[in-house]
Prior knowledge:
Blueprint: E1 9-10, E2 16-17, H1 19-54, H2 59-67, H3 69-87, H4 89-108, H5 113-141, H6 147-173, H7 182-187, H8 189-200, H9 203-212, H10 220-225, H11 229-258, H12 273-289, H13 294-297, H14 299-305, H15 310-338, H16 340-363, H17 369-384, H18 386-396, H19 403-455, H20 464-469
Antiparallel strand pairs: 1-2
Helix pairs in contact: 1-4, 1-5, 1-6, 1-8, 1-9, 3-4, 3-5, 3-19, 4-5, 4-8, 4-9, 5-6, 5-18, 5-19, 6-15, 6-18, 12-18, 12-19, 14-15, 15-16, 15-17, 16-17, 16-18, 16-19, 17-18
Amino acid sequence: MIGPAPNTSTSPGDEELHLGYLWVIAFVAALGGLLFGYDWVVIGGAKPFYEAYFHLSTGSQIGWANSCALIGCFLGSLCAGVTSERLGRKKALIISALIFGVSSVLTGWSYSFSSFIAWRIAGGVAIGLASSISPMYIAEISPAAWRGRLVSLNQLAIVCGILLAQIANWCIADKIQSNLSATALAASWNAQHGWRWMFTAVALPALLLLLCAPFIPESPRWLAAHQRVDSAAKVLRRIGGEQYSCREIETIQNAFAASSASRDWRELFSSPVRKLLLLGIALAVLQQGSGINILFNYAEEVYRSAGYGLNDILFNIVITGTINLVFTLVAMMMVDRFGRRRLMIFGCIAIAVSHLAASAAYRMHLHGFWVLALTLCAIACYALSLAPVTWVLISEIFPNRVRASAVSIVVAFLWVASFVLTYTFPMLDHVLGTSGVFLIYAAICLAGALLVIFAVPETQGRSLEQIEADA
Length: 471
């Protein structure tokens, strides 16, 4: 295991937390988020080049190539529960890194469209695994007072992966000559080789996760659930010392003793777990239904409607990634100070207001700066709230005994919602116009604010076992 850093800090429980060690193992786990972010967004920049290489001409071919990874995301998130429960969180992370590395290289160096699709779906499986396991693992190794910041580290890693992909795509796309014919584009270096390196680049962080993951500890709560209490106590001692370890082990064991001995899928649909499962699904759907990912997945269409040219669009996309990163850093400093509920309520209302203003701007034909400013405002509010806090809540509201399966199902619904959002935008945009689409997303955000006000408990500063006891 990675040894604890000499710098320590005192927690509210008076034990000495080895914060250096804690941040290192959380950072390693969050590499799964970085892989998720890069692999999810990189296809946007590669799109015109692999389409030219494979001579994709029909809407069905182009749509299938762009969205097929979502099938893998759904399957991977469903498999995450069983995999992480049987093998452990650590081994499941290693498996996801291995799939990321192999699928990225083989996607990049596919010479047939069917092979490209198959490896994109495999990459989606890795995304589904990582999006479930990384935040869950971090939540299970984190002391209550630090859990929000540490789980938000996973969202920060996702954002960094997105920004890295956007910068890489921008740099490569900047080399394209304008007004190339289809034949010339297909024969260009970008169409023959450039898009391949876009995908292949994700193998580097995948290799880093593969090298580092064997040295991080297994989740102490998974160890305790599998009757390896001594091993769990050892992990907790390395995190917070003897006093912290004894108290946490006692709390974890009491939580298991007070709960049902059953740990199968049927328990997910018993009260009160069913209520928490529905709440988790609603939060996942809200995060996607807020419409922010449209500003990433369809940025070209949104900004073109606002009157921007191609070069400005590509630069604006990098700006959106930068704003996303900056405000995710701010969210990490706020989530354990202001609480989950306040940030979620603020985010839903602020995003709704931004969407309403953007809708009005499109309706009044206020192009250029106004649309860019309003979309950046919405992204900033999203990065402060729904983006990181949804993952924090999903990772902490479920009882220890069913957390892996419950998170797996919730994240599967998140990917279903993502597919619906991505698939419906072009049709809604055609029927209602961009102004009308933003009105729909604003309404969803306002409904989400009511959901949080009336249904979401505050989990700030409480251990996972305390949250379970009050559920």
